[in-house]
Structures are given as C-alpha cells and as structure tokens.
C-alpha cells in the first residue's frame, strides 16, 4: 500500500504512479461498498476543514459527503466569513486550524497561497483547485478512464481549449500513468511552460508523449478520450467576451469528434456551458461520461482522505 499518511496533495507531482494506482484501486473498492450500502467508518473522529475562496458544487459536496460517509466531519469555511477575509494571514490561519482539525482542503487563487498554507500547517493540506492545478479532479478523470478502458496502456487523451489548471493536472496525470496527452489550444493559451516541461520529463520516463498543438483536429486525432473545460475560469470573468472569440474554433462538437476513435469518451470537469466549449449533442450524447466522472470525485477523494488520515 502507498504510504501517504500525513502527506499533502498540492499537485500530482506529490504522487508516484504507484500511489496513483493505489488510490484508484482503493476508490474502486470504496465505490463498490458504497453502492452495496456497506458502511466504512475509517475516519471516525476526524475533521476536514474546507476553505473556499471560489464557488464550488462538486468539490464542496463530494468532500463533505465523503468525510461523513467515512464517519468523519467536514466544515465548510467560506473565506468571506473567516478572519482571512479581514486580513488575518494565511500562516496564522494554518497554525490555528492545525490546533482543531485533522486536514485542510482549500480552493483558492494563486498556487503560492496553498504552498504557504501547507508550510505553516502541521496537518495535511489538499488542493481543491488553485489557478494552476486541480489534482483531485485529475484523479477522478483517471478513475473514469480506467473504469471504461480497464488499462492506461496505449491510450490517448485529448484536451481541447484553455491550457488552464484542469489541463495542467490532466497532463501530469496522463504523463504519470503513461497515457499520451494532446492539448489543442490557441496560441497564447497554452499550458504554462514549466508544467509542460515537467509533464514531458515524466512522460519520457513512462513512455508517453505530451503534445501541444494549435490544431484541435490534430489534438483529437485517434483519441480514446476528449476533454473540455470552460473557456473562462473563475477569476477571469472580465476576459469572458474576448475568450468567446479566441476559443470559437475549439468547440467540441459533432464535427470535431469524428476525428477521435468511435468509442471515445467525452469528459468535462463541469460546470459546463452548452454551445460554448461543447455542444449539447456531445455532452448529453452517448459517449459522454461526465456525471460518472463527477461522481468519481467523491470516491477517489474518500480513498485519498483515508490514505492521508486513517
Ligand atoms: N469540477 C469541479 O471542481 O467542480 P466545482 O467547481 O463545482 O467544485
Ligand atoms: N478551469 C475551471 C475549473 C472549474 C472546476 C476554473 O478554474 O474555473
């Protein structure tokens, strides 16, 4: 079993391929038990604090429900209500929360903020999305792909759109598991250079390829999975109008998916904007697995919480 006890999950760089495989297998077991109504109380008496500086549906509810199912507690801590919103430092907040609870999940803006929190906290810190990464999402993405394909070997995942936090974590997840990953994005909206470099380095060790291209058709060519995310992420709202134009030719629609394998999976982290990054025909169509993917957030996070805290 992987030794993740007491560890942080700030990015997937923190996990080895073996750790990831362990979490996926553990998630599959927990999911089966949940579906059979079996109760697993491995986190009795444990409390997770969840700090949100941005909106959330899936992350909040999946972490909270997951903790409760494992016999623990979860506290929703809006940054507007915390003293953080009135200027208390991240370092002081981290040290104070460490007196009361067993782990912190945080959704915030700059990735440096979660690094600072982790530095001052004496308890594990889990990334629930930063401007640069969304590692719990990528674990759920891997689980969903694995459930359908039963393997990672020989697969190609294509991400079409903005080279954002979700793209970054997906790229690292694929690299770690030896999955070819192709990002189709407009010039100027590529994944950050240091993330691509890291993913390429890992991929060279696992036998995968990481490709960045401006051509969405080339990105999805022969893909086993096509992934879309919003064109305007949280915090970029004032760029929304411009982004609609920049990304117009990167919509996942009936024409684009013709270039993928016929049994391609459609993935989206959600929330989605129908007729922007993806047409309703695709996200509500037969190849879409987006709700299974959303559900898998909870199962994989339960596996993670158990590995870190039990
Ligand atoms: N995919 C995801 O993280 O969704 P929320 O923003 O609703 O948490
Ligand atoms: N890229 C999106 C993901 C939302 C789950 C954002 O950061 O807003």
UniProtKB/TrEMBL annotation:
<dbReference type="GO" id="GO:0042450">
    <property type="term" value="P:L-arginine biosynthetic process via ornithine"/>
</dbReference>
<keyword id="KW-0963">Cytoplasm</keyword>
<dbReference type="GO" id="GO:0016597">
    <property type="term" value="F:amino acid binding"/>
</dbReference>
<feature type="binding site">
    <location>
        <position position="229"/>
    </location>
    <ligand>
        <name>L-ornithine</name>
    </ligand>
</feature>
<comment type="pathway">
    <text>Amino-acid biosynthesis; L-arginine biosynthesis; L-arginine from L-ornithine and carbamoyl phosphate: step 1/3.</text>
</comment>
<dbReference type="InterPro" id="IPR036901">
    <property type="entry name" value="Asp/Orn_carbamoylTrfase_sf"/>
</dbReference>
<feature type="binding site">
    <location>
        <position position="165"/>
    </location>
    <ligand>
        <name>L-ornithine</name>
    </ligand>
</feature>
<feature type="binding site">
    <location>
        <begin position="233"/>
        <end position="234"/>
    </location>
    <ligand>
        <name>L-ornithine</name>
    </ligand>
</feature>
<dbReference type="GO" id="GO:0019240">
    <property type="term" value="P:citrulline biosynthetic process"/>
</dbReference>
<keyword id="KW-0808">Transferase</keyword>
<feature type="binding site">
    <location>
        <begin position="269"/>
        <end position="270"/>
    </location>
    <ligand>
        <name>carbamoyl phosphate</name>
    </ligand>
</feature>
<protein>
    <recommendedName>
        <fullName>Ornithine carbamoyltransferase</fullName>
        <ecNumber>2.1.3.3</ecNumber>
    </recommendedName>
</protein>
<dbReference type="InterPro" id="IPR024904">
    <property type="entry name" value="OTCase_ArgI"/>
</dbReference>
<dbReference type="InterPro" id="IPR006132">
    <property type="entry name" value="Asp/Orn_carbamoyltranf_P-bd"/>
</dbReference>
<dbReference type="GO" id="GO:0004585">
    <property type="term" value="F:ornithine carbamoyltransferase activity"/>
</dbReference>
<dbReference type="InterPro" id="IPR002292">
    <property type="entry name" value="Orn/put_carbamltrans"/>
</dbReference>
<comment type="similarity">
    <text>Belongs to the aspartate/ornithine carbamoyltransferase superfamily. OTCase family.</text>
</comment>
<dbReference type="InterPro" id="IPR006131">
    <property type="entry name" value="Asp_carbamoyltransf_Asp/Orn-bd"/>
</dbReference>
<feature type="domain" description="Aspartate/ornithine carbamoyltransferase Asp/Orn-binding">
    <location>
        <begin position="154"/>
        <end position="307"/>
    </location>
</feature>
<feature type="binding site">
    <location>
        <begin position="56"/>
        <end position="59"/>
    </location>
    <ligand>
        <name>carbamoyl phosphate</name>
    </ligand>
</feature>
<feature type="domain" description="Aspartate/ornithine carbamoyltransferase carbamoyl-P binding">
    <location>
        <begin position="7"/>
        <end position="147"/>
    </location>
</feature>
<dbReference type="Pfam" id="PF00185">
    <property type="entry name" value="OTCace"/>
</dbReference>
<feature type="binding site">
    <location>
        <position position="83"/>
    </location>
    <ligand>
        <name>carbamoyl phosphate</name>
    </ligand>
</feature>
<dbReference type="InterPro" id="IPR006130">
    <property type="entry name" value="Asp/Orn_carbamoylTrfase"/>
</dbReference>
<dbReference type="Pfam" id="PF02729">
    <property type="entry name" value="OTCace_N"/>
</dbReference>
<dbReference type="GO" id="GO:0005737">
    <property type="term" value="C:cytoplasm"/>
</dbReference>
<feature type="binding site">
    <location>
        <position position="297"/>
    </location>
    <ligand>
        <name>carbamoyl phosphate</name>
    </ligand>
</feature>
<feature type="binding site">
    <location>
        <begin position="134"/>
        <end position="137"/>
    </location>
    <ligand>
        <name>carbamoyl phosphate</name>
    </ligand>
</feature>
<feature type="binding site">
    <location>
        <position position="107"/>
    </location>
    <ligand>
        <name>carbamoyl phosphate</name>
    </ligand>
</feature>
<comment type="function">
    <text>Reversibly catalyzes the transfer of the carbamoyl group from carbamoyl phosphate (CP) to the N(epsilon) atom of ornithine (ORN) to produce L-citrulline.</text>
</comment>
């Amino acid at each position: 079993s992987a030794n993740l006890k007491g560890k942080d999950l700030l990015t997937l760089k923190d996990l080895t391929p073996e750790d990831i495989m362990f979490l996926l297998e553990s998630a599959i077991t927990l999911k089966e038990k949940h579906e059979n109504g079996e109760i697993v109380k491995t986190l009795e008496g444990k409390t997770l604090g969840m700090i949100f500086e941005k909106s959330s549906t899936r992350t909040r509810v999946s972490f909270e429900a997951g903790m409760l199912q494992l016999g623990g507690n979860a506290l929703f801590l809006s940054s507007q209500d915390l003293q953080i919103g009135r200027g208390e430092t991240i370092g002081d907040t981290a040290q104070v929360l460490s007196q009361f609870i067993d782990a912190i999940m945080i959704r915030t803006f700059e990735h440096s903020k979660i690094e600072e929190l982790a530095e001052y906290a004496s308890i594990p810190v889990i990334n629930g999305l930063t401007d640069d990464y969304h590692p719990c999402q990528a674990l759920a993405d891997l689980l969903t792909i694995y459930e359908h394909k039963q393997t990672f070997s020989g697969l190609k995942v294509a991400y079409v759109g903005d080279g954002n936090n979700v793209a970054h974590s997906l790229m690292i997840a694929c690299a770690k598991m030896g999955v070819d990953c192709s990002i189709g994005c407009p010039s100027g909206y590529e994944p950050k250079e240091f993330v691509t470099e890291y993913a390429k380095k890992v991929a060279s060790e696992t036998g995968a390829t990481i490709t960045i291209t401006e051509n969405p058709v080339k990105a999805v060519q022969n893909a086993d999975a096509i992934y879309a995310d919003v064109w305007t992420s949280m915090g970029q709202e004032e760029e929304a109008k411009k982004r609609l134009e920049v990304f117009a030719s990167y919509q996942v629609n009936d024409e684009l998916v013709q270039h993928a394998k016929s049994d391609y999976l459609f993935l989206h982290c959600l929330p989605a904007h129908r007729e922007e990054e993806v047409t309703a025909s695709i996200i509500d169509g037969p190849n879409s697995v987006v709700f299974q993917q959303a559900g898998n957030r909870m199962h994989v996070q339960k596996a993670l919480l158990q590995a870190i805290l039990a």
